[in-house]
Amino acid sequence: MINKEYEQTEEIIMLLDLLNPKIKKALNNTHYQEREDLEQEIKLKVIETFKKLNDMPVPNFDEFYAPFTKSL
Amino acid sequence: MFHHILTHNSKQILNLFIRKNKEFIEQPIMKKFLSDKENFLIFCKAIEQPNKENKEALNLRFQEFYKKARVFKYLASLIHIFSIDFDKKHRLKENRYKLILDKPISSDGEKDGLMIDVLADKKLNDNPYLYELLPQENLQDLIINKDLANALKNLTPKQKDVLELFFIKGYTNKEIATIFNETPQNISRIRKASLKKISKQITVEK
């Protein structure tokens, strides 16, 4: 149980690193005085949303391929 | 893309699959998936030998990939939209609860100017020499870094003035433009060009 949470934390950290350019770019949408706050809020929102998204059902290869075989 | 690492026989089987499933292979998601070497190998293995083990490996691998791609895309868009909303909310709050200095003097709009333009600074009034000191601060005096100071020497006087007015005295492009009788766009161009010149020189020296 604990191992899974640790994995997820690692994943979130990697994700935030990956998204960092996007975050920096989004900071331009507000005053420079607010940028630090915005950065914190974005990261918080990302973490919250990620936890929800992670439980979303996602197709595997067969499921993704299936609609294309029907059209043959 | 990775065709060269396959055996001849594998290539034939793969090409057959591609021919029969052209539309599928052309899907952006499939292209992205197969652009990774590991993914490609697992995919080929499952096509050549569609036993339970290989198919399960492909399914799992694809699922992980798909999830990551979808999550990333969603979050990227979320970040952008969130920042716009955030800014909107802040502007609203700012306008609603204006700081006293940013408020207009008269109650019917900003015609007569803002408070910040009329209120006197007590500190300056008590110490006139303070006011004298501030305009004297120029670029050279404030730079400690040797490389940066050297780089500054290679700027034209105008470039130095623009940088000084912008960064030290906090003038806007518009204000600097009126001083030099230029367009704000040109001032911005001058500023960016000078910064680029400095950074080029510093990186060369390193």
Would you give an account of this structure?
The complex is a heterodimer of chains A (72) and B (206). Chain A has 72 residues and is mainly α. In chain A, 75% of the residues lie in helices and 0% in strands. Chain A contains three helices and no strands. Chain A has helices spanning 2-26, 35-53, 61-70. The longest helix of chain A is centred in the first third of the chain and has 25 residues, at 2-26. Chain A is flat and about 55 Å long. By secondary structure, chain B is mostly helical. The interface between A and B is medium-sized, with 32 and 30 residues.
Structural class of chain B: mainly alpha
Task: Detail the poorly predicted runs of chain B.
Answer: 129-133
Give me the count of strands of chain B: 0
Q: Share of helix among residues of chain B?
A: over 70%
Gross morphology of chain A is flat
| SSE pattern of chain B, N- to C-terminal | HHHHHHHHHHHHH
Helix content of chain A: over 70%
Count of beta strands of chain A: 0
**Could you say which structural class the secondary elements and strand pairing of chain A correspond to?**
mainly alpha
Q: Which two chains form the greatest contact, residue counts included?
A: A-B, 32 and 30 residues
Biggest sheet architecture of chain B: none
Distance between the termini of chain B: 39 Å
Give a quick account of the main beta sheet of chain A: strands, pairing sense, barrel closure. none
